[in-house]
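Lab channel / #folding
Pinned by the channel admin:
"Please post every new chain as: sequence first, then the C-alpha cells as a reply. Keep commentary short and put observations after the output so the thread stays searchable."

First post following the new format, from NK:
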Amino acid sequence: RTFFVPDPRKLYGKDNVRILLVGLDYDYDDRDQETSKQSRSDIIMALDLNLRDHRIAELSVPRDMVATMPDGSQAKINAAQSFGGIKESKTVVANWLGIPEFDRFIVLRIDTAKDLVNAIGGVDVDVQNADALKKTGPNGPIDYDDHWGHLAIHLKPGRQHLNGENAVAYARFRHDWCSDPCRIMRQQQLIHAVIDKIERDKFNTLTHIQSLLAVVRNDVETDISPREQLSTAVAFAHLSAKDIQTAQVPYTSTVALGPYGDSLV
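Reply from TO:
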C-alpha cells in the first residue's frame, strides 16, 4: 500500500517557513525537582526552512540581548518567554530581528536535548574550550561545578563520545572568557553532531525510532501540525550537516539594565 505525503510547500503555502525554536531554562522547586514554570528561554534560535532546496538556516540569538517588550519596557530578550509564553517570544524576537512574524514555533522542554541524544545512542563531539573555539590558544579541559544548579561539567578536551547528560552539560557551559558566544557555538556543534549521527547511522536511527517519537511526544511543544511534521520530515529526510547554515547575532557591548543586571547590545 502506498501512502501519499504532500509537498510541504503546498501545506505551508510558501517556499520558506520561519520557525522560532526556544529551549526552556529551568529552576528547582522546594522539593528539589526541576521545574520550568514561567521560565525564560535558555536557547533562542530563528530557523528558516528552505522547502524548495531542503536547506536550513539557523540564527542563534544570545539570551541576554536587550529587547523591547510589548508594553514598551526593556528587558533581556529571554524574559519574553516568562512574561507571555511562546506567543510573546515570537513577537519580541521577530520585532527585534526586524523580520515578519514567525510562521511556527517549537518549544523544547527541560530534558529534550538530553533525551534526544540518548535516543540515538549518544553523539561524537570535539570538546573545546574558549581558546580552541575562538582559535586564540590551546585546547584544554572543561571543568565547572554549580551545586545549586545541579550542574557538574568535567570533560577532557578533544573528540569523544558523549551521552545525553554530558552533551547537554557541554552545550550549556559558558563559564570561561568567551561566555555566551562560545556557549552558542557549542550548541551549534551539538546540532551538527546530532544531524551527522542520524545521517551516518541510518540503522541505529531506525532501531531507536520509538525512542525518538517518545522524545517528540513528551518533550516538545509545537504548533506544527502532525501532517506538516510528516511532510517536512519526509522532505528533509536526507538532510546532512552541510545543509545547515549556522550563525549567531553579534553584540558590541554590555549595559546595566536595572533588575536584569548586565545585558548585551
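NK: The radius of gyration is 19 Å.
TO: also worth noting, The mean pLDDT is 89.
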